Q: What sequence folds into this?
């Protein structure tokens, strides 16, 4: 069975899973729900908790909304703990506006203060 045919897994999620090397129910079951979710996240995609629940439902062959609240909390806690271990993002926010300062001879003289070299 391919990831595309797993219950709860839509085309976009199936593509993400395939791109991280998870092509079958057995592939996902071998690493578990949270690790499958984390592989997608570490690959640079932006999965939501819906993917976490969808994977769990796919492995349990149930609709993701049927996952008990206690299990959902366990999954979220485990995912949050794994996310906290990720290195910080490498990008930096864009810099502020660039300003150009032009110094004229008068401005330089004013900043230098009185000339103390004569005495």
A:
């Amino acid at each position: 069975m391919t990831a595309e045919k797993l219950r709860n897994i839509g085309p976009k999620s199936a593509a993400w899973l395939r791109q991280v090397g998870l092509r079958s129910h057995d592939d996902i079951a071998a690493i578990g729900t949270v690790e499958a979710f984390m592989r997608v996240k570490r690959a640079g995609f932006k999965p939501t908790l819906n993917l976490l629940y969808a994977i769990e439902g796919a492995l349990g062959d149930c609709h993701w909304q049927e996952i008990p609240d206690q299990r959902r909390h366990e999954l979220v806690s485990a995912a949050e703990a794994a996310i906290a271990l990720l290195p910080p993002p490498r990008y930096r926010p864009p810099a502020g506006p660039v300003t150009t300062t032009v110094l004229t001879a008068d401005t330089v003289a004013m900043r230098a203060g009185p000339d103390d070299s004569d005495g």
User: Anything to note?
Assistant: The mean pLDDT is 86. The CA atoms of residues 17 and 46 lie 12 Å apart.
